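Reopening this ticket.

The earlier resolution said the output was attached, but the attachment link was broken on my side. Pasting everything inline this time so it's all in one place.
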Amino acid sequence: MRIFASEKVTNLMRRLGMEEGEAIEHRMVSNSIEKAQRKVEGRNFDIRKQLLEYDDVANDQRQIIYQRRNELMEADDISEVIADMREAVVNDFISTYIPPQSVEEQWDIPGLEQSLQVEFGESLPIQKWLDEDKSLYEETLRARVTEKIAESYERKSTEVGPNMRVFEKQITLQILDNLWKENLSQMDSLRQGIGLRGYAGKNPKQEYKREAFAIFEELLQNIQFEVIKFLSHVKIQQKDELDAIERKREEEMKKEQKIMTHQSANLMDDSAQQQAAPQGQRPAAQQAPFVREEQKVGRNEPCPCGSGKKFKQCHGKLG
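Inline output:
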């Protein structure tokens, strides 16, 4: 009480003659402390309850991701999972340019062809198909595009062999882990600012659950899209291409070795020429510096010849 009480309460206790260290015993004080304690405990309980509700949302997402990851880890062949992903991704992608249950005038065929080339590395003559086959409609066109992309991937898998199954598994796990980390960071940012929704008359917990669901749904779609996009762009190098790369590398190494040999020969020639040159023709930078044996005579000192004159007036005279 003495530490946290206000100055008014401190003065009151001093006037009442309370001594240092004396216990405060009064029913009014005890009731006030008890009420304050109940309020603090209730507030802390509400905080913990709210945090648990937020954690339950994240925990539900975590269980789904971990379950899928464990299934991938336990499986030796996930080709069927990749096929299901591809069908879902391609259909969603086509819907962007060919809206479901739309007429042909609403289709963006050039945009679809260009996007398929950019995102999946597939050059499909969709407009040519439509011109040649008037019976094509939305569903049959979707099926043909999906089939062509699947056939292209199967050819690639056949060329690689069994190693393709291992590669698929590694890439899928890596993409899942990376996007899950980004999702956790995004959820943490949402959680920190969700309380401000209360100022707009909205329930922060309900808003958090709604937006967290949308973020998680987008995460699942992104995982599928990134996996299919990456696997579609994987290029298998043939033996002829590998041989050409190896030959090019050997040629570059020979050129570098030739340049280094030429530079070494030039340095050896320069060194031999400097050693063979006469003493007087050697560069001035390599000549030995002049060293004076006697002490230098000052101009005002007596001339060493013994004439009695100053050096500047005798042998040191200019001109």
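Reporter confirms the inline version is readable. The two ends are 106 Å apart (CA to CA). Residues 27-74 form the longest helix (48 residues).
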